[in-house]
């Protein structure tokens, strides 16, 4: 793997959700903007890469996503962060900073796309994964 740190975003929706597919599409179209807006202040990031192809798109949710609801569909994206060489020694600070930004992204940016009447039918998750755990997720 090329990156030490990853952001995994999962958009999941119930088969009864009329808006689920379009909300996942909106998130996908705004992903680069949202990541730049949220992470540009972290000076230890050299660059990040969003794979233009979703890890999975409108498929049954992989077991590794921990979506327990039956027949839900998932779309998932992986974003890799390249850290500046001189900052790599500060790994604990880097991990905590990334986790804080990811939590803020999930709570303040991604969830606003879900309308109140759809809250039970759509879930949006954002998680930090290190290189080893991202690799495990991809292989699962």
Automatic annotation (TrEMBL):
The keyword Metal-binding does not apply. The keyword DNA-binding does not apply. It comes from the Eukaryota. The lineage of its organism: Eukaryota, Metazoa, Ecdysozoa, Nematoda, Chromadorea. Keywords: ATP-binding, Nucleotide-binding, Transferase. Residues 2-73 form the Poly(A) polymerase RNA-binding domain. Pfam families: PAP_RNA-bind. One of its GO terms (biological process) is RNA 3'-end processing. This is Poly(A) polymerase RNA-binding domain-containing protein. GO terms for molecular function: ATP binding; nucleotidyltransferase activity; RNA binding.
